[in-house]
Every structure is written in C-alpha cells, then in structure tokens.
Design brief:
heterodimer, A: 177 residues, alpha+beta, Ubiquitin-like (UB roll), DNA polymerase, domain 1, 2 domains, five-stranded mixed β-sheet, 5 helices, 14% strand, globular, B: 300 residues, Uridine Diphospho-n-acetylenolpyruvylglucosamine Reductase, domain 2, Uridine Diphospho-n-acetylenolpyruvylglucosamine Reductase, domain 3, Enolase-like, domain 1, five-stranded antiparallel β-sheet, 16 strands
Amino acid sequence: MRHGEREENPSQRGMNMPDAKRILVRVRVNGEAREAEVEPRTLLVEFLREHLNLTGTHVGCDTSYCGACTVILGGRTVKSCTLFAPMADGGEITTVEGLGNDGKLHPVQEAFAECHGLQCGYCTPGLLLSTVELLKKHPKPTDEQIRKGIAGNTCRCTGYQNIFKSIRMAAAEMEKR
Amino acid sequence: MYAAPFSYHRATSLEEAVRLLQDLGQETRVLAGGQSLIPLMKMRMARPAALVDINFISGLNGIHESNGELRFGALARHAEIENSTVASAIPILHDCAAGIADVQVRNQGTIGGSLAEADPSGDWATALLALDTSMICFGPGGQRTVPLEAFIKDAFTTVLAPDEIVTGVHVKLPPQGSGGAHLAFKRSAPVYPTASASVELTLADHDMCTDARVVLGCVGLKAIRAKEGEAALRGKALDEKNVRAAVEAARAAADPQSDMRGSADYKRLLVGTLVRRAIGIAARRARGESVPAGHEYAGR
C-alpha cells in the first residue's frame, strides 16, 4: 500500500476550485478509432468500461496491485486503474475484447480454457494480456520468466499452478503456428 | 476511487511546461508516469488543483553513455532501463530497475518521476546514491545541475522550485574494479520494499577496499548514506571483522518507523542483513563474477 500523507492547506480548498473541464480523448482500441469527452480525473479503466462500453477490462483492487485492469497501451502492459485517460490520448490500446478474431479465441485464451487456468474469471482478462506480452518477449519462457512476467497479476482462485500450465501450453501452441 | 477534480494541461515543450507551472500556481503537480502520484491522488493524500502532463514532450526519454556518464532522460521508464544494455553494464542499476514493483508498473513509471516524488520507499534514490548521480533540472532561469544527495531534502520533498522540472539523471560510470548491488526485501512484487540496501565497492588486489558506498532505503525519511559503515570498509581489507563493523554501523544509521510492513526493530535487523549480503555480492561482482541479485519477495 502506498503511504506518505501530504500536508494540505484547508484554507485554500474551495477558494481555488480547479477548472476541471472535460477534455477529448481519442484512442484506437482493438484497431478501432474511439473517442469521448471526459473529466481529466477519469481513469483509463473507467474510460474503457463506462465511456466506450468495453467491460472486459475489470476493476479489481483499484490500487495498482492486482492487475485485473491490465491492458496493452502502445505495445506495453499497463494497469489501467493507474493512468488518467488523457495520458492515453493518441495511443493504441488492446483490451481482452481485441484478443480473439471472428469468434475464434486467441491461443492464449484457448490454453487458459483448456488447462483450467481460471476459476471465477475475474483476474483472467489481465492475466491473458500479461501472458500475450510475456510470450512476445519470451516465446519459450522459463518458470522464472513466467513468475516474473505475471508477478503483477493476482489470482485468488487457482493457486497459479494451472495458470503456469496454460502459459506453457500457449507458448507451445504459438510456436507451432 | 476517484481523484479530486483537477484541471489537466498537456505540455509539448519544456518551456511550455515551465510556463504552465508558473501560470497555474503552487497547487500544480507535474505528471510523468504517474505510478506514485496517481495512487496518492486516488486516496486523496494528494489533491493538486492542476496537473501538467510532460509525457508528450519529445526528447525527455532515452538512455545513452556520454563523457564518462550514463545519461537518463527524465521519462526513461524502469522497464527501458531494465532492458538497456548500457545501463545493465552497471549491475546495481539493473538490480534496481528490474525489481521495481511489477511488469506493468515498470512499463509506465519513470526514473525522473520516481526521484522527483522522493518517496522514502522508492528504490532509485537508494541505488543512485551509491553512485555519483546528478539531477538535471530546468526552470525559468534555465538549466541547473544538483547532486542527488542535495536534491532530496526530506520525505516527498526535493529542492525543486514549484516552476522547475527534472529533465535528466546523470550517473558517473564507476571506475575499474568496482562492483555494486541493490537488494530489497518485499512481501510481494507490486508493493514497496520493507527495507533495501545498496552497496558499491571499488576493490584493489581482490580484497583491498579502496572505496565504498553503503545506502539504506525505506528505513528513514529519505535514503540514508551509512557513512560510518562506509568508513569501516574504505582503505581496509574486506574481511569478516570489517564487514561486521560496516553492518553494525549501517544498522545504527537506520532510522526506521514501525508500520504495516514491519516493526522498527525488525526493519533495523533486516536492513543490516541486506547490507551484509550486498557487500558480498558487490565484492564478487567487483572481482568480475556475474551474480544475479535484486528484489526478493514471496513467489519470486
């Protein structure tokens, strides 16, 4: 948990009300141009869920810990609960909705289904995206690379054994293609 | 969780960023990677009236070697440093970059932002105080260079003026025969460490320590240089007696607070253990050995 309280000057609160005017955020999500006008404090995850109706990205802990909100922004995984939407302006985003193609699952999704790499499914969108990026960097990951690659994703159901199996299977399947 | 409302201003040049900071007043914060600032804002521990986003300024990223220094742009992300060949040539930098939080946070958080935030639990100040590090700052009067040791004044407090921003971090390359290590202990990947220690040694004839830096993290209001611990090693043989004296001096220099991560007594013991291990790894690296090290946590 983050700590360290900052001092505030209550006498100034309200006197200098910020001009929180809405701003236009334009992104490409899963290959499609999307935009919405939002308050600057809108988190990227809310922007995706509430403004673009892409509810595949989940809000888990909302404190930058659990990784359920992981999306790919400009080729790197980020926790979308810890970015303000305007920071993603002009960016290319992949969410879990963008993994499959024409009703066909992505090999990582297939492997998670096959190996029972999920139970309740809440953490799964984040784990799928972290796995996709992990396998881009390490197509044949060692157990240590898998541990490090998904250290920012918390699952409270599976005990991770089946997630490891899923990642190994996905790596093997993707190598064949 | 929602941050308190703020106005958002995107700077596209350093000059514009400084002008915005001047125009918007003291309740304004600079937004870089946001990995420390945004959680604080969501918990309402910080409620700036305005943010100046510097992410869209070009030329503030990158890592290169020049003039005997490693030069990081303020927006160099932890992951870029982790994967950089030039930065990884200095093992203490790789130890630090590769273990900060988790993949997603390392992909977004920046070295300049981390140092300007001056969170006493941040890793960079601890690791970089073990080397000769300068902060490059830009304000209305132009550019100035501040040694890292003078840059961080206190917890969450730096010498930056309200209209000044960090543009780069310059690290002097350690001399031949040097080796260092940054070790941190944390409960799990995404959290801040319970304690950390950075040691940089220069050895002659394998065992004679000609120079030493010992820095402690998370056990005070800012990273602490254990100067008596350094004196216990400098100019001396790296034997058990001197190492023990350095560890004891480091423990005495720590000023930890009890919190959810552990009691003050526990942290004081832990930081000494980390210093002892870091001295051992730094010495092996100074002798040319390749030794993996970094952050330790459950499930690693």
